[in-house]
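Field reference: sequence -> structure
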Amino acid sequence: MKHKALVAASLLVLPLTACGGNAAAGGDGSTVTVTVGYQSKTINTVTAGTLLRSLGSFEKQLNALHDGHTYKVNWQDYATGAPITAQMTAGKIDIGSMGDFPLLINAARGKQLGKPTHLVSVTGYNLRGGLNTIVTAPDSKLTSLKDLKGKKVSTSVGSAADGTLVRALQRAGIDPEKGIEKLNQQPAVGASALSAGSADALSQFVAWPGLLTFQGKAKALYDGAQLNLPTFHGVTVREDFAKQRPTVVDAFLKAQAEATDYLNDHPVDAAEKVAKATGLPAEVVYLYNGAHGISTFDPAVKPQLVSALKKDVSILKAAKLTGDVDVDSFVDDSYVKKALGSDYAERLSSNPPAAASEIWPKGATETRTFKTPAELLAYVAQHKDGIRASYVPDATTGTLWFADKAVWVADGDQLLPFVAPATAKAYVAGHGGARVVTYDDALKQAS
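Structure field:
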């Protein structure tokens, strides 16, 4: 039985007090300040950050401890995981959330500096790697990874998006260091570079590819799920803090579970809350965090995610960002097992929901699903002015994408969507009579 979120809908209004570099000590003895580092716009961490904060679940769990302390939560928002790691190793952040590659750097830096950290739970994940996407400008003539040879590609070195780029190029027979001109840029800078034409492509993590595509500023070139390697985000905690304040870690993980259940039970409302807090379009948040979104949310530390983390180490070592990382000592699921109790086994064995085509009607608080992409298109054709957003799963990878931004293939009576042109062309090559069609032609055929 899942925990049900008993949470307030209003935004958190509790005071935010800086820890003053004394997070572990927790202030003056009666007041304990817990500092949480999060990434509001990295929306696969919302159950440990943006959504958790807006629901006030952590504060409620802390107030329920009744251990003689008054608790305050200091929420610190960052664009990437690197500064969170820097603050954690300096003893100024107690709990942080970040993607898989930054988590490894977090582990390496913590051990190197004698300030060990531990991965204690997972936020959002995709078992095939669909959280990362390579995009190009809308008018780009590039249609496959092989076209990137000799081109300028923006990414954030040390991120999971860079890991996707490196692996994808290697599979395409391109040296990821010498075959392209890699631009090491923050996501927002890379997005601007793509728009300005100073970058030919951009490899980034959520929500940047979906956001730029939704805004008409980019189109997909490569779906990270083609790698078929899990990607995820998770929660890391300072070892000394966890040992000194285990009840606080327990409270955080129980609150994370509540936020997770809230997101899964109320996906549209959760997307609206995250959109309000971040300024991201709710339609983009829902692409990733919706009922059939690219990301699945569950705090359980699944073995396949730990296995993927071990495979990621070689990418970071090759980039000289870390040496060896002892993943087994970094991962500590004992806290989340204790926090979730008998629920943990059920969560650990749960699977992502089946991919589905989905419509978000204007003014609606719930979405509508369809058995096939063709059925969705038929509905769109009849209700063009009543659609807020429409989503379809890639016919090969299952990655959800905007229906009007997908690459469509007609194969007899079937209408099949793909995130990227290369996968669509690969399908056509293997199915006689199949052909790539425009979105408008797909709508006409469906109707």
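Note: The longest helix spans residues 246-265.
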